[in-house]
Amino acid sequence: MNILITICARGGSKGIPGKNIKSINGMPLIGYTINIANKFKASFKNVEIALSTDSDEIREVACSCGLSSDYKRPDYLANDTVGKIDAIKDILLYSEGKNHCKYDYVLDLDVTSPLRTLQDLEDAFAILQKDENAVNLFSVNEAGRSPYFNMVEQKSNGYYAQVVKPAGNVFTRQSAPKCYDLNASFYFYRRCFFEEGYRGAITDRSLVYVMPHICFDMDHPIDFEFMSYLLSNGKLDFMS
Question: pTM of the predicted model, to two decimals?
Fold first, then answer.
Protein backbone atom coordinates (compact mmCIF):
# COMPACT_ATOMS: atom_id res chain seq x y z
CA MET A 1 0.00 0.00 0.00
CA ASN A 2 1.45 3.33 -1.10
CA ILE A 3 0.22 6.64 0.31
CA LEU A 4 0.96 10.14 -0.94
CA ILE A 5 0.47 13.08 1.41
CA THR A 6 -0.12 16.32 -0.46
CA ILE A 7 0.34 19.77 1.06
CA CYS A 8 -1.04 22.46 -1.24
CA ALA A 9 0.03 26.02 -0.45
CA ARG A 10 -0.61 28.56 -3.16
CA GLY A 11 1.04 31.96 -2.95
CA GLY A 12 -0.83 35.25 -3.18
CA SER A 13 -3.46 34.84 -0.46
CA LYS A 14 -5.87 37.77 -0.43
CA GLY A 15 -7.71 37.15 2.84
CA ILE A 16 -4.57 36.87 4.99
CA PRO A 17 -1.49 37.95 2.99
CA GLY A 18 1.29 35.38 3.27
CA LYS A 19 -0.81 33.22 5.60
CA ASN A 20 0.75 29.89 4.62
CA ILE A 21 4.13 30.94 5.99
CA LYS A 22 3.06 33.53 8.54
CA SER A 23 4.44 32.82 12.00
CA ILE A 24 1.94 31.59 14.57
CA ASN A 25 3.08 30.80 18.10
CA GLY A 26 6.70 30.74 16.97
CA MET A 27 6.31 28.53 13.90
CA PRO A 28 5.39 29.18 10.26
CA LEU A 29 1.80 28.04 9.73
CA ILE A 30 2.87 25.45 7.17
CA GLY A 31 5.16 23.92 9.79
CA TYR A 32 2.19 22.51 11.73
CA THR A 33 1.01 20.62 8.67
CA ILE A 34 4.50 19.35 7.84
CA ASN A 35 4.87 18.09 11.41
CA ILE A 36 1.63 16.08 11.36
CA ALA A 37 2.48 14.74 7.90
CA ASN A 38 5.78 13.42 9.26
CA LYS A 39 3.99 11.79 12.20
CA PHE A 40 1.59 10.02 9.85
CA LYS A 41 4.50 8.93 7.65
CA ALA A 42 6.22 7.42 10.68
CA SER A 43 3.08 5.38 11.47
CA PHE A 44 2.72 3.72 8.06
CA LYS A 45 5.02 2.17 5.47
CA ASN A 46 5.50 3.52 1.96
CA VAL A 47 4.37 7.08 2.62
CA GLU A 48 5.71 10.09 0.73
CA ILE A 49 5.02 13.79 1.34
CA ALA A 50 4.73 16.21 -1.58
CA LEU A 51 4.47 20.01 -1.58
CA SER A 52 2.43 21.78 -4.25
CA THR A 53 3.15 25.49 -4.48
CA ASP A 54 3.77 28.15 -7.08
CA SER A 55 5.76 30.26 -4.59
CA ASP A 56 9.53 30.08 -4.17
CA GLU A 57 9.18 31.73 -0.76
CA ILE A 58 6.76 29.06 0.46
CA ARG A 59 9.07 26.37 -0.90
CA GLU A 60 12.01 27.85 1.04
CA VAL A 61 10.06 28.07 4.29
CA ALA A 62 8.78 24.51 3.85
CA CYS A 63 12.38 23.38 3.35
CA SER A 64 13.38 25.09 6.60
CA CYS A 65 10.60 23.06 8.29
CA GLY A 66 11.96 19.80 6.86
CA LEU A 67 10.08 19.40 3.58
CA SER A 68 12.03 19.92 0.36
CA SER A 69 10.43 19.91 -3.08
CA ASP A 70 11.49 20.15 -6.71
CA TYR A 71 7.90 20.42 -7.96
CA LYS A 72 6.47 23.78 -8.95
CA ARG A 73 2.76 24.13 -9.52
CA PRO A 74 2.00 25.28 -13.08
CA ASP A 75 0.60 28.79 -13.46
CA TYR A 76 -2.70 27.49 -14.84
CA LEU A 77 -3.26 25.62 -11.56
CA ALA A 78 -2.30 28.56 -9.35
CA ASN A 79 -5.19 31.01 -9.67
CA ASP A 80 -8.41 31.62 -7.76
CA THR A 81 -10.60 29.89 -10.35
CA VAL A 82 -8.92 26.47 -10.34
CA GLY A 83 -10.32 23.75 -8.10
CA LYS A 84 -8.02 22.04 -5.64
CA ILE A 85 -8.75 18.59 -7.07
CA ASP A 86 -6.92 19.53 -10.29
CA ALA A 87 -3.89 20.69 -8.30
CA ILE A 88 -3.82 17.49 -6.26
CA LYS A 89 -4.13 15.31 -9.35
CA ASP A 90 -1.24 17.12 -11.03
CA ILE A 91 1.20 16.57 -8.18
CA LEU A 92 -0.08 12.99 -7.78
CA LEU A 93 0.82 12.19 -11.38
CA TYR A 94 4.13 14.03 -11.02
CA SER A 95 5.02 12.09 -7.86
CA GLU A 96 4.07 8.76 -9.42
CA GLY A 97 6.35 9.47 -12.37
CA LYS A 98 9.20 10.65 -10.17
CA ASN A 99 8.96 7.79 -7.66
CA HIS A 100 8.08 5.07 -10.21
CA CYS A 101 5.04 3.85 -8.31
CA LYS A 102 1.29 4.15 -8.18
CA TYR A 103 -0.27 5.48 -5.00
CA ASP A 104 -3.29 3.70 -3.55
CA TYR A 105 -4.36 6.63 -1.38
CA VAL A 106 -3.85 10.38 -1.25
CA LEU A 107 -4.06 12.29 2.03
CA ASP A 108 -4.43 16.01 1.44
CA LEU A 109 -3.65 18.21 4.43
CA ASP A 110 -4.83 21.81 4.32
CA VAL A 111 -2.29 24.31 5.65
CA THR A 112 -4.91 26.80 6.85
CA SER A 113 -6.83 24.28 8.97
CA PRO A 114 -4.11 22.71 11.15
CA LEU A 115 -6.07 21.61 14.24
CA ARG A 116 -5.87 17.86 13.73
CA THR A 117 -4.07 15.04 15.50
CA LEU A 118 -2.39 11.82 14.42
CA GLN A 119 -5.28 9.99 16.09
CA ASP A 120 -7.72 11.89 13.87
CA LEU A 121 -5.84 10.80 10.75
CA GLU A 122 -5.44 7.19 11.82
CA ASP A 123 -9.10 6.82 12.83
CA ALA A 124 -10.34 8.50 9.66
CA PHE A 125 -8.13 6.34 7.45
CA ALA A 126 -9.48 3.21 9.13
CA ILE A 127 -13.05 4.31 8.34
CA LEU A 128 -12.25 4.71 4.65
CA GLN A 129 -10.38 1.41 4.44
CA LYS A 130 -13.38 -0.48 5.84
CA ASP A 131 -15.70 0.73 3.07
CA GLU A 132 -14.42 -0.54 -0.26
CA ASN A 133 -17.11 1.33 -2.21
CA ALA A 134 -16.21 4.76 -0.82
CA VAL A 135 -13.95 6.91 -2.98
CA ASN A 136 -12.99 9.48 -0.36
CA LEU A 137 -13.43 10.82 3.17
CA PHE A 138 -13.19 14.33 4.58
CA SER A 139 -13.11 15.85 8.05
CA VAL A 140 -16.11 17.68 9.51
CA ASN A 141 -17.44 19.13 12.74
CA GLU A 142 -21.01 19.11 13.98
CA ALA A 143 -22.76 22.13 12.48
CA GLY A 144 -23.70 25.09 14.64
CA ARG A 145 -26.57 25.95 12.29
CA SER A 146 -28.97 23.60 10.57
CA PRO A 147 -30.41 24.04 7.05
CA TYR A 148 -33.49 22.22 8.36
CA PHE A 149 -34.20 24.75 11.09
CA ASN A 150 -32.31 28.04 11.48
CA MET A 151 -30.95 28.97 8.06
CA VAL A 152 -32.77 30.95 5.39
CA GLU A 153 -32.32 31.70 1.71
CA GLN A 154 -33.53 34.48 -0.54
CA LYS A 155 -36.73 33.74 -2.44
CA SER A 156 -37.42 34.94 -5.97
CA ASN A 157 -39.40 37.89 -4.59
CA GLY A 158 -36.35 39.13 -2.65
CA TYR A 159 -37.57 38.20 0.83
CA TYR A 160 -35.78 35.84 3.21
CA ALA A 161 -38.61 33.71 4.48
CA GLN A 162 -37.91 30.17 3.38
CA VAL A 163 -35.82 27.61 5.19
CA VAL A 164 -33.08 26.26 2.97
CA LYS A 165 -34.07 22.62 3.41
CA PRO A 166 -37.63 22.08 4.64
CA ALA A 167 -38.08 18.97 6.79
CA GLY A 168 -41.77 18.67 7.54
CA ASN A 169 -42.53 18.98 11.23
CA VAL A 170 -39.08 20.07 12.40
CA PHE A 171 -39.58 22.96 14.79
CA THR A 172 -36.47 22.74 16.99
CA ARG A 173 -32.75 22.46 16.33
CA GLN A 174 -32.58 19.33 18.49
CA SER A 175 -35.15 17.47 16.39
CA ALA A 176 -33.56 18.35 13.04
CA PRO A 177 -31.47 15.73 11.20
CA LYS A 178 -27.73 15.82 11.95
CA CYS A 179 -25.72 18.15 9.74
CA TYR A 180 -22.00 18.81 9.58
CA ASP A 181 -19.62 21.62 8.64
CA LEU A 182 -16.67 20.86 6.41
CA ASN A 183 -13.65 22.17 8.29
CA ALA A 184 -11.18 21.71 5.38
CA SER A 185 -8.57 20.07 7.63
CA PHE A 186 -7.92 16.85 5.73
CA TYR A 187 -9.19 14.69 2.89
CA PHE A 188 -8.42 11.06 2.09
CA TYR A 189 -8.83 9.92 -1.51
CA ARG A 190 -8.63 6.49 -3.07
CA ARG A 191 -6.66 6.47 -6.31
CA CYS A 192 -9.87 5.62 -8.21
CA PHE A 193 -11.30 9.02 -7.20
CA PHE A 194 -8.98 10.67 -9.72
CA GLU A 195 -9.42 7.95 -12.33
CA GLU A 196 -13.21 8.32 -12.28
CA GLY A 197 -13.05 12.06 -12.90
CA TYR A 198 -14.70 13.54 -9.82
CA ARG A 199 -14.47 17.34 -9.83
CA GLY A 200 -15.17 18.06 -6.16
CA ALA A 201 -14.59 16.43 -2.79
CA ILE A 202 -18.30 15.86 -2.10
CA THR A 203 -19.39 12.85 -4.14
CA ASP A 204 -22.09 10.18 -4.14
CA ARG A 205 -19.61 7.83 -2.41
CA SER A 206 -18.06 10.06 0.26
CA LEU A 207 -17.56 9.37 3.95
CA VAL A 208 -16.89 11.81 6.79
CA TYR A 209 -14.82 11.81 9.94
CA VAL A 210 -16.40 13.85 12.73
CA MET A 211 -13.69 15.59 14.71
CA PRO A 212 -14.14 15.29 18.49
CA HIS A 213 -12.52 18.69 19.08
CA ILE A 214 -12.47 22.24 17.75
CA CYS A 215 -11.26 22.81 14.21
CA PHE A 216 -11.69 25.74 11.84
CA ASP A 217 -10.27 27.08 8.62
CA MET A 218 -8.49 30.43 8.61
CA ASP A 219 -10.02 32.61 5.90
CA HIS A 220 -9.94 36.04 7.57
CA PRO A 221 -7.37 37.94 9.67
CA ILE A 222 -9.49 37.52 12.81
CA ASP A 223 -9.33 33.72 12.37
CA PHE A 224 -5.55 33.93 12.54
CA GLU A 225 -5.79 35.99 15.73
CA PHE A 226 -8.13 33.41 17.29
CA MET A 227 -5.80 30.55 16.40
CA SER A 228 -2.75 32.39 17.65
CA TYR A 229 -4.43 33.10 20.99
CA LEU A 230 -5.56 29.49 21.45
CA LEU A 231 -2.14 28.06 20.65
CA SER A 232 -0.04 30.55 22.62
CA ASN A 233 -2.23 30.26 25.72
CA GLY A 234 -2.40 26.47 25.82
CA LYS A 235 -6.13 26.30 25.12
CA LEU A 236 -5.75 23.39 22.69
CA ASP A 237 -4.69 20.49 24.89
CA PHE A 238 -5.21 17.96 22.09
CA MET A 239 -2.42 19.63 20.08
CA SER A 240 0.27 18.88 22.69
Answer: 0.93
